Structure of GNAT family protein:
Amino acid sequence: MISGAVDLAQDVLIRPVALDDAAALARAYRRNRDHLDPWDPDRPAAFYTEEGQVERVQVQLADRRAGRSAHWVLVSGAEIVGHAAVSNIVLGPARSGNLGYWIDAEHVGRGLASAAARHVCEAADARLGLHRVEAGTLLHNTASQRVLTKCGFEEYGVAPSFLYIKGAWRDHRLFQKILNDRPVPEG
């Protein structure tokens, strides 16, 4: 299914999330709370605790086993410095999923978001058998839009009132990347 760690940069690896990551994820989310706040939905207080992350990772692992999503963490030393995922996986004739990612505030500008997005797309194609990956950004998130464009995503529209963020339904710019043109497997 999903293999082990891969070097993204001199001191950063990307690897599948594991239950043992809960404490480091909680620290990373607390450390990056203000950094991620403009882009993320409101989070309950428990999200920032080790217990909250244990529950979250358990769901992610169950979803991976069921083929609904795949999550990775970016690791530098003992700390998690980012997360990347393909979620909402749909098979059948669609064979698609949604890309999501974030990078620690102290590691922004090093190309890690682009490297993580490329890694997820490669895994979505080679290991998960997807045909297409899509991503959405808030209209003013130009940094994420640059990452997606740099990774070969094409903008294909705007979704009005797409996600509820910061107390309102927010429009999102939509991007997609066609990974391959293989026929859908039979069966």
